[in-house]
Amino acid sequence: MNSAKKIFLFFTLLYSLSSISQKRIEVLETLDDLGFWSKNVISVSSDSNCSTFLISVTDKIKSHYHSWHTENLYVISGSAEMKLADSTLTIKTGDLIVIPPNTIHSIKVKTMEKFQLISIQSPEFKGKDRVWVKEK
Q: How many Å apart are CA 93 and CA 85, to the nearest integer?
């Protein structure tokens, strides 16, 4: 991705996040609901086309896949190890990861720094297509 596209995406995301202060922020799930350890999930927006979440993780997101969603993750702070299908990646601030449907993925935070990302899922995420995978 070239610099102009990254800058456009960054400012688009900042604009979206700035609207959070204009509406009630809703914490969607409790700590155990999504297999996250020490996490916080905030709904930024949702309609029939896509859902956008701000996610903070201090430990991990367990292995799972989405049966029919494409998920785009944009890291806004920190770094972590991500398992994506058969690959292991180090992801960090500014990275954009596109996860096609049926692709197993997980995240493990390896540092003490704050790790936050924006998750954009299309079509709208209602929690029905998330399938947990037994950790190896």
A: 21
pTM value surpassing 0.70: yes
Residue in the block written with tokens 């692709």:
103
Q: Count how many Cα atoms sit within 13 Å of the Cα of residue 33 in the half-sphere of its side chain.
A: 10
- The rounded distance, in Å, linking the Cα atoms of 76 and 8 is 14
The three-state secondary structure class of 3 is: helix
The one-letter code for the residue type at 41 is: V
Residue 41's nearest CA partner among 33, 29, 50, 49 is 29
Q: C-alpha distances in angstroms, 28 versus 33, 43, 86, 109, 120?
A: 9, 7, 30, 21, 15
Alpha-carbon span 9 to 18, nearest angstrom: 14
Domains of the chain from N-terminus onward: 3-125 (2.60.120.10)
User: Following CA atoms 83, 41, 21, 52 in sequence, which dihedral angle do they give, to the nearest 10 degrees?
Assistant: 60
pLDDT tens profile 69-116: 999 999 999 999 999 999 999 999 999 999 999 999 999 998 888 899
